[in-house]
Amino acid sequence: MTVHNLYIFDRNGNCLYYNEWNRKKQAGISKDEEFKLMYGMLFSIRSFVSKMSPLDLKEGFLSFQTSKYRLHYYETPSGLKFIMNTDLSVSNARDTLQHIYSNLYVEYIVKNPVCVLGHSLDSELFSSRLDAFIRALPYYSPRAA
To answer: Are 95 and 82 in contact (CB under 8 A)?
Structure first.
């Protein structure tokens, strides 16, 4: 079990934060291109899910999986998007993403007068606390493939 990477996007599709832990294969394109592709894919999937759902979903799109990984998605009321890629053994990381938002992002970014909202997250305190939190998760394993 493991966590591969985490993206945080603002409502306009700008990648505010990115980190990887156990990512074995790189995309072969620039990080900026990867961020655009990820945001575009999420935009399309969310649109598809909302149009095709037979019910009025309050939560909407939460995750999807391929044969190799699972993508977990959490969107805040303000439009921030938290995306975590894990291996297939992690069935639901929604609580984890909510915790990252409410206990790390809000505490170390929103309440920090030095951090400018809507810009790249350059807070070393946020990064170190997030890293410690991810490494303490029960499904994090540094040796996982």
So the answer is: no
